[in-house]
Write a structure and sequence with these properties.
With about 400 residues, this protein is of the alpha+beta class. It has ten helices and 15 strands. The protein has one domain: Beta-lactamase. Strands 5-4-3-15-14-13-12-11-10 form a nine-stranded antiparallel β-sheet, with helices on both faces. The chain has a two-stranded antiparallel ribbon with strand order 1-2. The chain starts with a helix and ends in an 8-residue tail after the last helix. Its EC number is 3.-.-.-.
Length: about 400
């Protein structure tokens, strides 16, 4: 009888124990939200802000807990957006390149702090480019190019503008001359130019093209079969169109030259695999992610781009805003967060991971209106109130 009583109590205890609900998504602050509620609230945001298409992926325990596509791949044909549609990844390209650079540094094939000039047998300004207008001939009389390092290129401290035809203030400069705006290593200023320079030097030194390196080190091992730095024939009937603020489709631009700063095509499923891998490595204290997420430069600008990028502030002091190798870094009560955005005509993306908690989120959109709901989506999905939304210029639609 005593044994029966113990068995009965055990069964009662088991039946009353909390059961993990697959419909409940855990957020940073310990609260949770149901997938049903998330579906409803996301759809409301999309409809209100006129976002053409959006995919949302949320990670719990470093793996995908929620993943769904909303809206359209093409506003005119009304083709539904899916998780398998190929997006132009824009600057998400840089996060993948950061992972490759960290691997090379870990293998001691690249010294992050050695001047880039040491890796090639000609002055950097004389280095040839497939497209001549992309070369650095214009700085041949500015010796500061000899100070440039891989770490500076990856953490946006080269002193170069984002692109040579756009000034730091965001003004179009048709002459497109590359120049230093400050001494390398002394300040932060987002620069695709610096990253492209590093890519070309690594390609010459290693003897492999970026696409070849990425395929061997990232895409093939992680089975990212619909991801590439150059356009592939298999993408032809699988891509989604970008859309303007008026939800007009934008003609597809096809890239035939790999660009570390922003040529990657990828799907939500593929890029989520990449993020899950990075989260797992970081949670395991991988030497590679330690290199990638080492803080390199404290950021004090009011905004990341435009005129306010030249003004200083302490607004992001509490999150210790910083930059690693191709990834932004911030501090929170739940450990460091590592983020990367992607922005181009018709496409707006954002990802942030908190490996200490196993929580993260990936937002991918084919709409120029998407960033107007990013702040709300981050809070709704994972209670991320730490992303510097004003610095990112993620101004909510109801505040414009």
């Amino acid at each position: 009888m005593k044994h029966l009583s113990i068995l009965f109590l055990s069964l009662v205890t088991i039946s009353c124990a909390p059961v993990k609900d697959p419909t409940q998504i855990v957020r940073l602050d310990g609260t949770s939200i149901t997938t049903e509620q998330l579906d409803t609230d996301i759809q409301t945001l999309i409809d209100t802000a006129k976002v053409t298409g959006l995919t949302v992926t949320i990670f719990n325990q470093n793996t995908i807990k929620y993943q769904k596509a909303f809206g359209y791949a093409h506003s005119t044909t009304k083709d539904s957006l899916t998780l398998d549609h190929v997006f132009y990844g824009a600057s998400l390209s840089k996060a993948v390149f950061g992972y490759i650079v960290a691997q090379l540094a870990h293998e001691e094939q690249l010294d992050l702090d050695q001047p880039l000039q040491a890796y090639i047998d000609m002055p950097i300004p004389d280095m040839p480019f497939k497209r001549e207008w992309r070369n650095f001939k214009n700085i041949e009389n500015d010796d500061r190019y000899q100070l440039l390092t891989a770490r500076m290129c990856m953490s946006h401290t080269t002193g170069f503008p984002n692109w040579r035809w756009i000034s730091r203030e965001g003004e179009f400069t048709p002459e497109g001359k590359i120049q230093f705006y400050f001494d390398p290593g002394t300040d932060y200023s987002y620069s695709g130019e610096g990253m492209r320079l590093l890519q070309k030097i690594i390609e010459r030194y290693i003897g492999e093209g970026l696409e070849q390196m990425a395929s061997a080190r990232v895409f093939e091992p992680l089975e990212m079969n619909m991801t590439s730095y150059v356009w592939q024939q298999r993408f032809e009937n699988a891509y989604c169109h970008g859309h303007s603020v008026t939800q007009e489709p934008i003609k597809k631009d096809i890239e035939d030259e790999a660009g570390a700063a922003g040529s990657m095509e990828t799907t939500t499923k593929d890029y989520a695999r990449f993020l899950s891998n990075i989260m797992t490595l970081s949670a395991q204290n991988s030497s590679i992610t330690k290199l990638m997420f080492r803080p390199n430069i404290a950021i004090h600008s009011k905004k990341q781009f435009g005129p306010l990028s030249l003004e200083k502030t302490d607004a992001n002091k509490d999150i210790a805003l910083n930059y690693g190798l191709g990834w932004g870094i911030l501090k929170s009560p739940y450990g460091e967060g590592y983020f990367k955005e992607g922005h181009s005509e018709g496409f707006q993306h954002y990802s942030i991971i908190f490996p200490n908690t196993g929580i993260g989120i990936l937002l991918m959109s084919n709409s120029d209106n998407a960033e107007s709901i990013f702040k709300d989506l981050l809070e709704l999905g994972i209670q991320d109130v730490y992303t510097p939304w004003y610095w990112e210029d993620y101004i909510p639609y109801y505040m414009k």
